[in-house]
Amino acid sequence: MSNQNQVQVALQRIYLKDLSFESPDPVASFKTKWEPQVNLDIRNQNRKVEGDLYESVLELTATVKVGEQTAFIVEVEQAGIFMIKGLEGEQLNRVLGTFCMNVLFPYAREAVDSMCLKGSFPPLVLAPINFDALYDQSKNQNNK
């Protein structure tokens, strides 16, 4: 096999694209017994930058409520530029939707945790996410 046909995937750069923290009424939240309900929304976007370079963005939105009251909302867009050679179509989409997300997730997770602490709330340690299963689930929904 020649070098031209080999698959290559490499992280070129990782960066925080957007970060937002909102706490509508923190004083009321601090007075309430801390029994949070966490809703986590996960999205990703990918785009070709040029040549073999792709930007992959993992978007996380964590909404934390105590009772009926929103304690805080944290939104993170963690991004990376990946060099991907030798893949096209479904294989390329799978790498962008799984491998790249797995690389970005620990950085996004740390940003969420850090923002909670800076807002004077307990840390929000997100559980690992199976991006392969999410990708397959999304693909199955789109094929229906």
> Under the CATH scheme, which architecture would be assigned?
Roll
Shape: elongated
**DSSP strand tally:** 4
Q: What about the largest sheet?
A: 4 strands, antiparallel
**CATH H-level superfamily:** SecB-like
Low-confidence stretches: none
Task: Name its key features.
alpha+beta, Bacterial Protein-export protein SecB, four-stranded antiparallel β-sheet, elongated, 42% strand, 144 residues, 33% helix, 4 strands
Tell me what the structure shows:
The protein has 3 helices and 4 strands. It has helices spanning 26-31, 89-118, 131-142, and strands spanning 8-22, 37-50, 53-66, 69-85. It has a single domain (12-142), classed as Roll (Bacterial Protein-export protein SecB). The chain starts with 7 loop residues before the first strand and ends with a helix. 33% of the residues lie in helices and 42% in strands. It is of the alpha+beta class.
How do you describe this structure in short?
The chain has 144 residues and is of the alpha+beta class.
Outline the secondary-structure elements:
Blueprint: E1 8-22, H1 26-31, E2 37-50, E3 53-66, E4 69-85, H2 89-118, H3 131-142
Antiparallel strand pairs: 1-4, 2-3, 3-4
Helix pairs in contact: 2-3
Pfam families: SecB
GO molecular function, one term: unfolded protein binding
InterPro entries: SecB (IPR003708), SecB-like_sf (IPR035958)
